[in-house]
Structures
1.
Amino acid sequence: MKYIPTIGLEVHVQLNTNSKLFSTAATSFGDDPNTHTTAVCLGLPGALPVLNREAVKKAVLAGLAIDGTIHKRSRFDRKNYFYPDLPKGYQISQLYEPYCTSGHLNVTRENGETITIGITRIHMEEDAGKLIHSENSAIRESYVDLNRAGTPLIEIVSDPVIDTPDDAVAYMNTLKNILEYIGVSDCNMEQGSLRVDANVSIRPEGTEKLGTRVEIKNLNSFKAMKAAIEYEMERQEDLIERGGKVVQETRLWNAATGVTLSMRSKEEAHDYRYFPDPDLVPLVLTDAEIEAIRAELPELPEQRKKRFLSQYELPEYDAALLTSQRSYADYFESAAIGVPPKKAANWILSEMLKETGERNCTLEQLFPATYLSELISEIESGRISGKIGKQVFSKMLENPKPPKQIIQEEGLVQISDTSELEKIIEEVIAADPTSVEDYRAGKERAFKALMGQAMKLSRGKANPQLITELLTARLKQDN
């Protein structure tokens, strides 16, 4: 029997505000443990939460970017549970009245096909702290870091309509790209700014009723997410085929062993005893406030790709890759000012991205976009050849300097002076009469040998087009 998977994703996104959702404590990452806490973060008696206006703005911006319905009235609820890194004993979230519902993403598969995946809801909530476990030979110890407690999150819940692990990855790539474009999060999965829970179920082919779903928690990379979903599909199918029954539960992904492990039986909403937070009034937004935030929406990836195709006349592949990250697109547009856009795209895609991958850095960290534009201009003007351009590029990587400065310091200006090139040609002809005779006898390869010698003699600085013309004319003079 064949089984059809159904996948739904719950994506937790840390908003990049300076302070937490309900307190003035900082949200910076990597500082000493428990240095960014207040009475509100610690849940001390009498401490009252105050909603962060910037977090609301960024949350609404995310909702508008996925074409969701922004509700003018939403409400915060208390989700009650005990965990060591949740000192209040509850998390402030939005269950009954989220601020955003009914969005969607247009997702492009690897084969170029575009599908639409619905988004059920987005709600705001505060993050919990972090537990750090360590072991030594004598005792196992656990530590609590509350720096993250209270960090503003949005949880983006997809419709349960994703059919394959590959589509799940494509959805996440699209979503992450949009969130980075609109600047609401750095989406750094290694630091926990973007975390994914995957709900997976299978049903027999030909049936409509969905199977029992299993939630896989805290997947911190797309690779892990895909592997965990694939494993869970196989586990459920094998369980059913052996006569077992899938139970609703929460499981964890063990990357070392490549399996999911049972964590706890799946809770329902009533298990958390949700009720409206008595310390927070409902969030009320006006039409004018929502439209003001909408006006701040930047050009989104899909729109930018279409513009790159029309404005810069780039191939589909180039436009898609350049707009796959906002930093790529911004760098390209800065570098393409005053130079052929295709040339800028070629340098970025064929040379620079390889370097950023090897060096684990950004394009801008290699050198400014204005340097690339200047390098292309120097080649296009004929001041240097393409071959010399590669040398200049290498030197820019070693020590970022303006190309003109490198060309001047290294003496790399292309030789285009006719009299100087003629002297080089005469020297080459005098040094290799055999190749001259071979060329005059109709052996075209001899011309390439003479050209190679001329370029070598000029240390690669001779204008290739001009020296080709001069050498051809000189060889025909006595023929």
2.
Amino acid sequence: MGNRYETVIGLEIHAELSTASKLFCNSDASFGGDPNTKTGVISTGMPGVLPVLNKRALELSVRAGLATNCQIANYSKFDRKNYFYPDLPKGYQITQYDLPICYDGHVDFELEGETKRVRINRIHLEEDAGKLVHGDITGNPNRSYVDFNRAGVPLLEIVTEPDLRSPEEAIALWRAVKEILEYIEISDCNMEEGSFRCDANISIRPVGSKEFGTRTELKNKNSFQHVLAALKYEQKRQAQVLDEGGNIKQVTLKFDPNTGKTSPMRSKEEAHDYRYFPEPDLVPFEVNDEEIKQIHGELPELPAEFRKRFTKEYAIPTYDASVLTNTRQMAEYFDQAVKLSGDAKACSNWIMGDLSALLNDSNTSIDNCQFTTQHLSELIQLIEDGTISGKIAKSVIANSFENGQMPRQIVDEQGLSQISDSSEIEGIVDEVISANQESAQDYINGKKKALGFLVGQVMKATKGKANPKLVNQILAQKLTRE
């Protein structure tokens, strides 16, 4: 690439909505199950049936539009997109063409410490297709099956403008959209189950050119890593073709993660090939301003807003804020914990450190664990008032996480309170100095590191319960006098 070409990328992000039933019928919309057990006469396109719009899916679409700064259409409709494919039972897909529910929005995202903005062209609502299963249980690769469980599941398509200028920007934007949809709880965005995926269009053009180059498209990808690798490869491939005097062909690509290369799958269809026309079995629908206002009022604080507030209000580092807002549940947990304890940095350290490790090891989400914000606030208070040391606190949080007991109860029952009696510590210090004369002399002779060894011996003798600050003070005083 060098400085000769500029990369232009646009994304079409697909998210299955978290509704109990499908978009136009009451069939089960949940993931999984035996093939073709979550179907019905409407989702499989039986003759003479009529679709009915799922109101909840419409409301979730409006939520998505508001969260991505879109205009919400008061008047909208559905259209038929005609094409033949084995997993499309009706021979057409009910979608939205010229009057989408959401339009003219934008999403801000962070990349390498810089805030970037991508315009959203439109967000439209459509039904998902079924799924082809290749190969049978006997291992015959020449047989294929169709599972219609997914057919008719409500699918949101978020179409960006071609504002992205690198594969890294594309992935950062895709991650930001995933984060937003999870925060507003309209999709589980489970990439392994295929409920969050994307099409990526990429072209290159000479630097300074205003005309777009011919684009190629990666379809239905559900891996950040694969899309990043594919876009990087395509970027270099297109540059090489142009350098050699060739022309880029507008094709749909497949990507082989083993070789890291893309290859043509089929020539790209244009919109007029689909013969769009208004869906005759569904009347146009309206969303009035009062309904939009109500849905807007139900939106939670979004990740970017949380991060901005946390760094400003709680004065925590930008890195801490980004980690603590990975999920809405963690952001809200941290926010509540700070309100209870008053110590933002201590809350941040414990949540990002020991608590996150315990959550990961037990495969538990922060909103479902027994260690609540009240537990964390009490743990921090026990450290601050000198009842326990930071080292003892690590064992307390592990116990509290496991059994749900309050930290103070654990400290009292297990006798973990810190020894802060100067006279008691002095006696132990004397014993340690007597048993470690060489290290004591090293400290007196100017080897300051020797003090750390002696402190460690005192802590060992007290099973970690001596007040470390007092131990350091008493040791230093005694060895200075000697």
3.
Amino acid sequence: MIYRQDQNQVQCPNRSTMPYEVRPGDTLNSIATRFGTNLVGLLELNPTLRLRTLTEGMTICVPRVPVSPPCIGGAYYTIREGDSFYAIAQRYNLPLNLLLEANPEANPYDLKVGQEICIPNVPEGCPFGTVVTIAQGTRLSDILIGYNLSLNELIDSNPDFNFNVIVPGTELCIPPENYQPCSQNSTEYVIKTGDSLSTVSTSNNLTPSQLLIANPNLRPANFLIVGTRVCIPTVPSGNNNA
């Protein structure tokens, strides 16, 4: 994941923050989650955002992500919400002490969302996903819909891929599902056959707007995909208009 830093565009308040250039598809909530903060914290770093619209190419201040450790013979993994060294070691079938030794500067009790750690003894390229080969006639929408990806997820996993010119035979890394656990004020629901944004919101006494606000990384179409994890807020907030 690349965070462009250009001190000529914006001066961030202190050394614990850094500039970030807004990309297509970014929202205040998605940026806050990516950098281990919340909407209030992000607005405190960028008070003028209260009066402006977030636009592609705008540079804002975000919390600085810890420097990545050396990772020779392994692969980098980006910390997500709910991750722990113990859970990561189990996920990749590694001894916990081996993971700790590969990340001596990381505080296992204070991992930051967006922080990169080293997973030792994992091949480079597409270590945590699946490699697929583009077939003749494949369109960008075919890739994004077929693998349930956002454009940002595809670009992050394939920085050299030109999505404007799709060449048959090109190998792409399809990242694993970007799962984020639900907050304490919500419960998890898994989409079943016949579900939709409308039916799930109605059955839980919510409006579609409230359900989308509670799931800022999901698109309306995701509520049609069987197996999608959805957070159902126990204390609805936000716009009550459908």
